[in-house]
Design goal:
three-stranded antiparallel beta sheet; about 20% strand; binds nicotinamide-adenine-dinucleotide; binds (2S)-2-hydroxybutanedioic acid
């Protein structure tokens, strides 16, 4: 039997928490051979709910789940943790942008960055889900100077999955055949869902869309710009409009997939989108957490290099970068 991995989930009593914990305990994130210890953090007023969640985890009798700790003390939750999924934060409601949450949520991530720096295992891998996720991840990373910056990431896998789903629906193609999607930039309305490299069984999606256009009035490019990009960019708001609550099960699924691929490996001949510290790739200067296409192997990721970027793509990528700089400026008092 392998040694268990310690996993911290913040905001564990919330919507995404409820959807993610059972997937992790079932082995969906780290595989069917990997035992886990869950260290669940939420606010004092959520402890009763958290007790109920722990009862349900027990009642599932998961064979991989070795221990569940519930607490409102981040020091206990982060002690020796090897994977920290930072969900605990306020969600937006109808009519808000994610960046409107900076005031409410930014301070959470400066405190948690400091505590991770002090209490977590030195190899801890961090996924920030709480919005605005990219800037919150930057805050946490900057407040954890003794941890490896490459071990901090923000979630754009949900956007990546949304983009793949839109192509599957448009072209009546199986999800598993759609490869090489990219979402550049910020997890916000400025993100750039880039179809230029996406393939289905080795053929460019772009070419398939162009072929289809012969019997259609709209052209592929027009569909990409008017339908595909805005649908993916605004999907979070559309879910809030429909449910009255922000996405939860799909967000949990994306978190599981993000950590699964990072810790184990991304699929052969494919890549995934992760928001990671920019390193100058694709002309995005260091200093922000930005969505890039990456390949992963056993805890390491590499940004895919050498992709051609269209003029439209460059415009979107720069706009998203500028938004991240504005967000960073707004929280500069939280970056040490
Ligand atoms: P929720 O309100 O249902 O749950 C949030 C939980 O966090 C609550 O239980 C709350 O008590 C807890 N919490 C708040 N502050 C905390 C703190 N300082 N420490 C520990 N716990 C704390 O919200 P949710 O729907 O689960 O969403 C959580 C966050 O995830 C929101 O910011 C939302 O916008 C974001 N989100 C991000 C993505 C993404 O793709 N990056 C997708 C969906 C939602
Ligand atoms: C999402 O993309 O669904 C989340 O970021 C929630 C939101 O506020 O849109």
């Amino acid at each position: 039997m392998k040694a268990p991995v310690r996993i911290t989930i913040t905001g564990a009593a919330g919507q995404i928490g409820y959807a993610v914990l059972f997937r992790i305990a079932n082995g969906d994130m780290l595989g069917p051979e990997q035992p886990v210890i869950l260290q669940l953090l939420d606010l004092p007023q959520a402890q009763q709910m958290l007790r109920g969640v722990r009862m349900e985890l027990e009642d599932c009798a998961f064979s991989l789940l070795q221990q569940v700790t519930i607490t409102d003390d981040p020091k206990i939750a982060f002690q020796d943790t090897e994977i920290a999924i930072l969900i605990g934060a306020r969600p937006r409601s109808k009519g808000m942008e994610r960046k409107d949450l900076i005031e409410a949520n930014g301070a959470i991530f400066s405190e948690q960055g400091k505590l991770l720096n002090q209490y977590a295992a030195r190899h801890v891998k961090v996924l920030v889900v709480g919005n605005p996720a990219n800037t919150n991840a930057l805050i946490a990373m900057k407040n954890a100077p003794d941890l490896e910056p490459r071990n901090f990431s923000a979630m754009m896998r949900l956007d990546h999955n949304r983009a793949i789903a839109q192509i599957a629906l448009k072209l009546f193609q199986p999800i598993r055949d759609i490869k090489k999607m990219v979402i550049w930039g910020n997890h916000s309305g400025t993100q750039y869902p880039d179809l230029d490299h996406a393939e289905i069984r080795g053929r460019l999606v772009r070419d398939i869309l162009t072929y289809q256009r012969e019997n259609e009035t709209s052209v592929g490019q027009e569909w990409i710009e008017r339908e595909f990009i805005p649908t993916v960019q605004n999907r979070g708001a559309a879910v809030i409009e429909a449910r009255g609550l922000s996405s939860a099960a799909s967000a949990a699924n994306a978190a599981v997939a993000h950590m699964h691929d990072w810790m184990l490996s991304s699929h052969h001949n494919d890549w995934v989108t992760m928001s990671v510290p920019s390193d100058g790739s694709y002309g995005i200067p260091e200093g922000v957490i930005y969505g890039f296409p990456v390949t992963c192997k056993q805890g390491l990721y590499q940004i895919v290099q050498g992709l051609g970027i269209s003029a439209l793509g460059r415009k979107h990528m720069e706009e998203s970068y500028r938004e991240l700089i504005e967000e960073r400026e707004h929280v500069k008092h939280l970056l040490r």
